Amino acid sequence: MRLSKKVLLVNLAFVLVAGMVFVGCTKKSTAKGGDAPLEVWSFTDELEGMINDYYLKDFPNKKINYSLTPTEQFPNKLDPVLASGSGAPDVFALEDAFVRKYIESGLLLDLTDVYNEVKDKVQQYPVQVGTYNGKVYGLSWQVTPGAMFYRRSLAKKYLGTDDPAVVQKYFTDLNKFLDTAELLKTKSDGKCVVVSAIADLQFPYLYGRKDPWVVNDKLVVDPKMVEYMQMAKTLKDKGYEGRASQWGEGWFAGMQGTLKDERGNAVEVFSYFLPTWGLHYVLKTNAPETSGDWAMIAGPIPYRWGGTWIGAYKGTKNPEAAKELIKYIATDDDFLTRYALDTGDVVSNINVTNKVKDTFSEPFLGGQNHYAQFVEMAKNVDGRLNQATDDVIQGIFGEAVTAYVNGEKSLDAALADFKQQVNSQLGF
C-alpha cells in the first residue's frame, strides 16, 4: 500500500482542476524570464495554496499558469510531455511513490546550484531522495517522519498511564512492541489490539532496512523485510491486530472507537502508525469526536511515509524563474515560517523548525507538542533507500506477505515467488 495524504485527498474529491494566475516582475524578483508565464503542474492543492497565498503575494507581478490533476492521472499526463518536450511544464510536483522515477529519468533540471546555496539549513533526507549520481534534481519543503499515535484512555486503562514518556518505554523496540501487544490482549481479555491493520507496520520495517531493494542490479531482500513478514504472521495468528484493511472502513472505524469483530463484539484499537500528515488529514478528519484522547510517541523504529518534491523540466525555457520558485517554496525562511505556523506542516528548513518547534500545543493530542518531536524524528530518517523501482517491487512484495500471512504459502515459497515475479517484470 502506498497511499499518501495526496492520494487520500484525491480519493475524497476526485476532480480535475486547472487554474491560471497572471502576474509580472517586482523589484524583489531576480528571475530572467521576460513576460512568459511559468507553467506549474501538480497533483496536490498544497502547492496551489503556496503559490496563491504566499508566493504571488510576495511577488505580485509574477506570471504563473497552474494546473491541478488527480494523483492517479498525474504520471500519465506528465510522462509523454517530458519525453517529447512538447507541452511540458516548467515546474511540477512529484509524489513520494513516483518521485525517484523522475529523479533517475534524466529529464529533470539540475538543481545542485540551488541546493548548494541552502545546504546548511535543510534536512538531509529529502535531499537524499532528490539526488541521483551526485546531482540534486528535486527539493521538498517538508519532512514526513512517522510516529505511533495511541489512545490515551486505553493507555490509562491497560498500562496505567497516558504519559508519552512512559508509554514509549513499552515500545522501545519491536520485541517490546510484541510484549506490549500481548499485555494489552491479556489485560483486556482479547478486546484491545495494538493495531487495527497489519499494514500499519510496513513503513517502519521498510525504513528499518540497511539496503534498498536493488543493489548492483540485483534484487536484495533485506532481513528486515523477512522480519516484517514474520511480524505480520504473528500479529494475525496471536490476535494482536484488528483484521482491518489499511484505508478500509474497519481501519477508520478503529480510530472512531466503533470497530467490531466478525461476531459483532467491540474491538479497541490502541494505536496507529502514521506520519506527520496523518494527524491532520487522517485522525482529525476521520475521528474528530476523539479529540484530546490521543498522544504520540516515536515507537519502535524511525521511519517516514509520503511527501512531495518539486522539480523542473530540463528543457524549460525559463530555468532561472523555475529555480527561483523552487528555492522559495522548498527553502525560503520567511515563507516557511509563515507556512509552518499557518498549517502545522513540519518543514524541511532547519532554521524555521528551530524557531517554531516549541510554539505548538496540539489540542487533538491533549495539548502535546507533536511538532518538536517530529523535528527530532526527522533527523533519524535515511532517504538513500528510495529507488525508481520501489513501487513495483513493493506491490509484488505485498502480495507475498498476504499469501504467507493467510497461510496460502510457506515463508520460503512466498519469498521464492516474490523473487521470481520481480525478475520476470523488472529483470532483477
Characterise the protein shown here.
The structure is a single chain. α18 (390-405) runs antiparallel to α19. Residues 1-33 have low confidence and may be disordered. This protein is 44% helix and 13% strand. It is globular, with a radius of gyration of 22 Å. The chain has 428 residues and is α/β, with parallel strands linked by helices. β5 (131-132) and β6 form a beta hairpin. The chain has a five-stranded mixed beta sheet. The protein has two domains: 5-144 and 305-378, Periplasmic binding protein-like II (D-Maltodextrin-Binding Protein, domain 2, 3-Layer(aba) Sandwich); 146-197 and 241-303, no CATH class.
Notable characteristics:
single chain; 2 domains; disordered N terminus; five-stranded mixed sheet; 19 helices; globular; D-Maltodextrin-Binding Protein, domain 2
Sheet with most strands: strand arrangement = 1-3-2-4-13
CATH class of the largest domain: Alpha Beta
The biggest beta sheet reads: 5 strands, mixed
Q: Mind telling me which CATH architecture of the largest domain this is?
A: 3-Layer(aba) Sandwich
Overall number of structural domains: 2
Counting DSSP H or I runs of 4 or more residues, the number of helices is 19
Average predicted confidence as pLDDT: 91
Named CATH topology of the largest domain: D-Maltodextrin-Binding Protein, domain 2
How many strands in all?
A: 13
Low-confidence stretches: 1-33
Shape: globular
Structural class: alpha/beta
- Cα-to-Cα separation, first versus last residue: 22 Å
CATH H-level superfamily title of the largest domain: Periplasmic binding protein-like II
Q: How much is the radius of gyration in Å? A: 22 Å
